[in-house]
Backbone:
């Protein structure tokens, strides 16, 4: 692989379309809960505070998902570019730009069970100095999310494999092989 021949991993329009549909459903359920105020025999779910968090949270998550996934659906850029310089991630709301190999300390797989039937797979890019990346973010909400990610998972950078045209284990293999190849050539 040379600078003129990077590995480009495309965004999966099919996967992104499914995520957009789920976002629309989240919005619809949230609005339905706000308007109809459904009742249930479970006192916990009838609690107005719990109901408010669930309904407004669902609507907000749906709106954010619609905004993000609609943008990604029409995005012509590759989801990920990997070359001898480092990694360029175009899968998330965070715009890190080039993440040079010299800044990376480790690459590891993660998955979070989001429901009884599904999980969110992602690859964490461990950084030698995560605060350098956090401090670059000008949006305070995004900066705080990056801090939470760093405290919870050890890094602010996580590459979601759910919107890419590649299987998680294949992406992990490519990133690790490329990291091993180019990180050993770096002289700090």
Residues:
């Amino acid at each position: 692989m040379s600078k003129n021949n990077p590995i480009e991993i495309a965004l999966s329009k099919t996967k992104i379309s499914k995520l957009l549909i789920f976002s629309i459903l989240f919005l619809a359920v949230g609005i339905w809960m706000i308007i109809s105020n459904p009742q249930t025999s479970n006192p916990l779910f009838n609690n107005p505070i719990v109901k408010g968090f669930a309904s407004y949270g669902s609507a907000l998550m749906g709106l954010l998902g619609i905004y993000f996934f609609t943008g990604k659906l029409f995005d012509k850029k590759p989801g990920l570019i990997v070359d001898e310089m480092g990694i360029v991630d175009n899968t998330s709301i965070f715009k890190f730009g080039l993440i040079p190999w010299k800044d990376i300390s480790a690459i590891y797989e993660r998955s979070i069970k989001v429901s009884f039937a599904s999980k969110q797979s992602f690859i964490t890019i461990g950084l030698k100095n995560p605060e350098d990346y956090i401090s670059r973010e000008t949006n305070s909400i995004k900066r705080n999310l990056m801090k939470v990610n760093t405290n919870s998972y050890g890094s602010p950078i996580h590459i979601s494999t759910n919107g890419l045209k590649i299987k998680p284990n294949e992406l992990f293999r490519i990133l690790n092989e490329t990291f091993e190849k180019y990180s050993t050539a770096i002289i700090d």
